C-alpha cells in the first residue's frame, strides 16, 4: 500500500514541482543549519572519556578565604604546590597525579632539524593509566621513576614522526632545554577533546601535547608553568627564587584523582575537609574548611568549557528550523487544499479517512527524505564554513560522521512528517459531498 501512496506522491510532485522544490529547500536549509551548529556543540560538550569520567575527580581547596572573594562556587581552579604535594603524599585516592603545562625547546641530535619549541606536561606516572592513554611504542614511566626524579620522557606520535620518522624511538635520548631524557614511550594518536585535564589553563582544544616528563624531574629542573599562575588573594608576600615560588600561596598545579565509586568519593571529600581543617588549626587558613570535589563532567560544566557562542548558535539554529517547519506546514496545507476536489472524489469512491491521512503523511515523508539529502549536502558545505563563526581550534572539531549523517536525514524526515500531520488531518476531513457539488 505504501508503494501506491508513493506513486500518488510522485504524481503530486510532478503537478506542483515548484511548490515541492520550495518545501525541500526549506527543510534542507533548516536541517543543515541545525546540524552544522549541533556538530560543533557536540564536539565541545561531549564526554571526552566515557569509560572513566565517573571515576575521575578534581579537588578544590580554599586557600584565599572569604575576605578575598572565595565562596562555595568560587574557589581557586588549581592548587598551591604545598597542597598538591600534601595530597600526593597522603595517597588516599586509587590513582592520582599533580600536573602542570610546560614548554621547552627540543634540540634534534641528528642535525636534520633546527631546534623548535614543543608543548608538554609535567605529571606523575598515574597520569597515563588514569586517562587510558594508548601507546604506540613502549609505555609510561613508573612510580619508581617518579621517586628517583628520573630523566625519562613520553613523547607524542607527532613528535616521534618529526624526529625519528615514526620508528620505534624507545630507549633513545631526547634533548629538551639542554637536558637529556630517555624516551620510554610513544603515545598513539591521543588527544581527547576537550582536553579535560587542562581546561583551567585555557587549553581545552587544540593539537595534542608533544611530550610528558615526570613532575618531580620538572620541579628539580625548575621548569615553570606554561599555564595560569594565580597569586591573587595570596596572604603572604612572595619570597624570591624557585623555593619561594613553591612555598607561596599562588595556585598553578592541577590535581586529578581516580576514585572507584561514590563511597570512595565521599571518603575523599571528608579527607579533603579534614585536611583544610588541619591547615586552619595550624594557623595557615583563618576561615572554616571550604573544599569541593568535582567529577569530570561537572568540572567541565563548572569551567564553562563549551563556548557560549556554540550554545547560542545552536538555539538560533533550532529557532530557524522551527520557522522552516511552520512554513512547511503552511505550504503543505496550501498544496493539499488545492487538491480538495481530488480528495473529495477519492472519498466518494470509497477511500477512508485513514487512507487519505496515510497518503499525505507518505507524501510528507518523501519530502522529508529529499530535504534530508539536501540538508546532508548543505551540512557538509557548512562544515567548511564553521571557522567563520567559531575559533579555528573549535571549528576543526566538527566532522560529518556516519552518526551525524543518520541524525541529519532522520531529523529531516521526522520534522517533515510532524509538519505534515495537521495538513494530512485536514485532508482526511474534507467533505466529499460538498466538494462534488462545487465541481
Core attributes:
10 strands; 16 helices; 439 residues; six-stranded mixed barrel; alpha+beta
Question: Would you summarize the structure shown here?
Answer:
The chain has helices at residues 2-15, 17-45, 81-90, 127-130, 143-148, 157-164, 215-220, 241-246, 262-281, 296-302, 308-338, 340-348, 353-383, 392-395, 402-428, 432-438, and strands spanning 56-61, 95-107, 116-123, 135-138, 152-156, 173-176, 179-187, 211-214, 254-258, 291-295.
Structure, explained:
There is one protein chain. The chain is an alpha+beta fold and 439 residues long. 50% of the residues lie in helices and 14% in strands. The protein is built from 16 helices and ten strands. It has helices at residues 2-15, 17-45, 81-90, 127-130, 143-148, 157-164, 215-220, 241-246, 262-281, 296-302, 308-338, 340-348, 353-383, 392-395, 402-428, 432-438; strands at 56-61, 95-107, 116-123, 135-138, 152-156, 173-176, 179-187, 211-214, 254-258, 291-295. The protein has a six-stranded mixed beta barrel. Strand 2 and strand 3 form a beta hairpin. Helix 11 runs parallel beside helix 15. The longest helix has 31 residues, at 308-338. It is elongated. The two termini are 28 Å apart.
